[in-house]
Design brief:
alpha+beta, SH3 type barrels, 3 domains
Length: 398
């Protein structure tokens, strides 16, 4: 095969170009030819191959290939073509200048590595978009894992670029970095811990974007809006944002309310403090009235005819007939350990409403109704005396 450099030089001499300019003219012509070839190859890839791939992906039932062959990914892939063409064809222009050829090829390799890193970053972003559209993967904290892969790719690319610049093998540089592993561990401590924590959170399904979590230590009480490599962002109910390191969610304790939402029932657990002085045996008239109203199946013995018992039965019947109380979950009205503040009567049930506002509305309705019903059974709420109470007592004594 004839040397293209000599052939072009011969043609330039025949065209009348002076002898001293023919060699450089030939090299310039070859360089321009290389640039033209790289430009045409890139244009052909973008104008013909990309539309063909996109048409094929559009005809498939899957949606993931539509993301992988979208314009942004394909254009980043097209950036790999020029440095590859230059690297392969530059010896034709600089064959007689090995030093210049080595420098230009190093530049082409660095350009190729940078373009490859850009393509990897775009592909990882695309995979994240695909994951967010997948029913199973959308709730997984995968963003941190993708960010870690990006970081590793950048580190590897940086090592390759340094090895190209200094003309040494990449494994030699890695061996040298091994001696400073402690320093690297310190620099990338949060990223490494974040990656490990992200894998644990994902593998154990401990946390998903959109979960309502409570972590008192960090003042977090709201919905998870983002899980990244180094932070977990929680939008609190007061619209503030709390950032938590992912490894803190693994090493410390936090409360995830997802189970409550998935169960379809949210617990109501409230106590009424009954004044102990108002708890007494019922009179025969009260017993007959309560039995007639259905708060007891049949008349009881005297020791069982306590007004607090009838109130508990009434509260259980009220919860059983109240819309919004989950019929398949536990319902209970129980007496807790008496205290100096009175006798706690605890209302324990589950609401079918898990959202905050409807839940609080139902809970308030229950408490309001039961508090208003206490006088009906001769009971009253315990309340510490205020200054007004003492004033009325003094006025009464006078």
């Amino acid at each position: 095969m004839k040397n293209p450099d000599l052939e072009i030089a011969r043609l330039l001499r025949e065209s009348g170009l002076a002898e001293q300019y023919t060699e450089w003219g030939a090299r310039i012509a070859i360089v321009l030819g290389i640039l033209l070839v790289s430009y045409l190859a890139t244009r052909l890839f973008r104008m013909f191959l990309i539309p063909v791939l996109q048409n094929i992906s559009a005809r498939t039932k899957a949606t993931w290939d539509d993301h992988l062959f979208k314009d942004k990914v394909m254009h980043d892939a097209a950036r790999l073509i020029p440095p590859l063409v230059w690297y392969m064809l530059l010896p034709l222009a600089c064959g007689k200048m090995p030093e210049l050829l080595a420098v230009l090829q190093k530049i082409c390799m660095i350009y190729l590595i940078v373009a490859a890193l850009k393509l990897i970053s775009t592909v990882l972003d695309t995979l994240l978009d695909i994951s967010n559209e997948h029913e199973t993967l959308r709730n997984r904290p995968l963003k941190g894992i993708y960010q870690m892969v990006k970081l590793v790719a950048v580190l590897v690319g940086g090592i390759l670029i340094v090895s190209i610049l200094i003309g040494r093998d990449a494994t030699t540089i890695l061996a040298g970095l091994g001696a400073s592993a402690a320093v690297l561990m310190l620099i990338f401590r949060d990223s490494i811990l974040g990656l490990v924590a992200g894998i644990q959170l994902s593998a154990n399904d401990m946390l998903r974007p959109g979960d309502w979590i409570t972590m008192t230590k960090y003042g977090a009480d709201g919905y998870v809006i983002e899980v990244s490599l180094t932070t977990v962002k929680v939008q609190n109910f007061d619209k503030t944002i709390t950032t938590i390191p992912p490894y803190a969610l693994v090493s410390d304790s936090f409360q995830n309310w997802r189970g409550m939402r998935e169960s379809g029932g949210r617990r109501i657990k409230r106590s009424l403090l009954i004044d102990a002085a108002s708890v007494r045996f019922c009179s025969p008239e009260e017993l007959a009235r309560f039995t007639e109203e259905g708060w007891e199946a049949a008349p009881c013995e005297e020791q069982d005819t306590v007004n607090l018992r009838f109130f508990r039965n009434y509260a259980m019947h009220y919860l059983a007939t109240l819309p919004g109380i989950h019929p398949e979950m536990l319902r209970m009205v129980r007496i807790l350990q008496p205290t100096a503040e009175g006798i706690p009567v605890e209302i324990y049930c589950f609401s079918t409403q898990t959202e905050w506002l409807p839940f609080e509305t139902l809970q308030n309705t229950i408490l309001e109704h039961l508090i208003a019903s206490l006088p009906r059974f001769g009971l009253r709420i315990y309340q510490r005396p205020s200054g007004l109470d003492f004033k009325e007592m003094m006025n009464t004594e006078k």
